[in-house]
Design brief:
InterPro entries: Humanin (IPR028139). With about 25 residues, this protein is an all-alpha fold. It contains one helix and no strands. It has one helix at about 5-20. It is rod-shaped and about 30 Å long.
């Protein structure tokens, strides 16, 4: 299982996606 890789990808997407959704 590549949990670290998945988490890193999730964080990368969240950093760009989250601010746009919450604004």
């Amino acid at each position: 299982m590549a949990t670290q890789e998945f988490y890193c990808l999730l964080l990368s997407v969240s950093e760009i996606d989250l601010p746009k959704r919450w604004e």
